[in-house]
TrEMBL record:
The lineage of its organism: Bacteria, Pseudomonadati, Pseudomonadota, Betaproteobacteria, Burkholderiales. It comes from the Bacteria. Gene3D superfamilies: 1.10.287.130, 3.40.50.2300, Histidine kinase-like ATPase, C-terminal domain (3.30.565.10). It is an enzyme of class 2 (transferase). Residues 127-163 form a coiled coil. This is histidine kinase. SUPFAM superfamilies: ATPase domain of HSP90 chaperone/DNA topoisomerase II/histidine kinase (SSF55874), CheY-like (SSF52172), Homodimeric domain of signal transducing histidine kinase (SSF47384). PROSITE patterns: HIS_KIN (PS50109), RESPONSE_REGULATORY (PS50110). It comes from Pseudoduganella aquatica. Residues 173-393 form the Histidine kinase domain. SMART domains: HATPase_c, HisKA, REC.
Amino acid sequence: MLERTKLLIVDDLPENLRALQALLRDEERTVYQATSGDEALALLLEHDFALAILDVQMPGMDGFELAELMRGTEKTRHIPIVFVSAAGKELNYAFKGYEAGAVDFLYKPLDGDMVKSKVNVFVALHRQRQETQRQVVALEKARAEQEATLQALHLAQEELQRALRTRDEFMSLVAHELRTPLNTLSLETQLRKLQIERGVQEGFNPEVWKKMVARDDRQIQSMIRLIDDMLDVSRIRSGKLSIRPAETELSGLLQRVVADLSRQARETGCEISLKAEQEVRGHWDEFRIEQVIVNLLTNALRYGCGTPVEVKLEADWRAARITVRDGGKGIAEETQARIFEPFERGLDTGVSAGLGLGLYISKQLAEAHQGTLSVSSAPGDGSTFTLTLPRTAG
Ligand SMILES: Nc1ncnc2c1ncn2[C@@H]1O[C@H](COP(=O)(O)OP(=O)(O)O)[C@@H](O)[C@H]1O
Ligand SMILES: [Mg+2]
């Protein structure tokens, strides 16, 4: 909707104002009247006028003085002025500072048509300017929107590129991680084939057999773990990771896990100690809790640089808390949040790491139990991972 155009007429004689008002009246205009310069100024500061028609000769502040004041004020500087003066008067007053075309003159007695056509020109100019301004604003808005869209597009593109890079890296990692145990298995098979062909008896020695099978089993288990991890990630991603809570006792579970990992611990030259003084029962998914503890312990063995690893179980009526502490290199503050992200592997550890899924899956499992998994660590001072499981949930 177009706003009404506002016009200001200033004259000390009410009859002159009335006459002008009659000439200027129009559906789309509002005409404001002032009988003095002061009154006019008050109106000028309050409204946005398309045009001011000023009587030159007024007692007190005359038309020129009023124009000077208007010129000196930011809000009124741009308003075009038409001076009304008696015919024959000298009007070469210097209006420096006014835009060209922004000042005009009318002579008394007023010629109705002349007044109308002059005012129409100014009003049309004003409308045009308003329209241009609206367009500029609209254009600026469109430009800003475009800019925002572009920005979003840019971000999405970067995100996509990162995702593609991660996928490529991931594929080569998985391939590598699977290839290593498969290589070993393949070698073992070749060896057995040779032994069978040559009929080498000692190849069938039960002791040798036992060791061979144990080696094979380790390779197979590591591949199964890897594939299970990947399946877990895809379950998490599609929101299908579920837990099956049942009556679970944690100290027994920890004893079992620690015993299972003791051989691996000896191999890395460190010892796992367990401090679980009391039984702690709750409603949790035993296999998933075991998975988390195994992840934390294998990390501690892998990144703990052969230092003693300490597992502790504590509980109050609200929650059970399992901490796994190592004395390794620790994790820099700025890295600590990242290690719980998928595919994040500390590159600073210098140890050949896994796929970087263990902690991500573990945290998700903790949260599926309404629990938490957190780390506290200072570089050089080891790391402590804490799994907290509420006892009231479920
Ligand atoms: N006990 C720890 N001490 C130092 N760094 C650790 C420890 N546990 C995990 N990290 C860091 O967190 C990263 C992510 O761990 P994780 O998700 O288990 O993946 P992965 O073991 O496959 O690398 C590891 O690569 C390692 O840099
Ligand atoms: Mg790990």
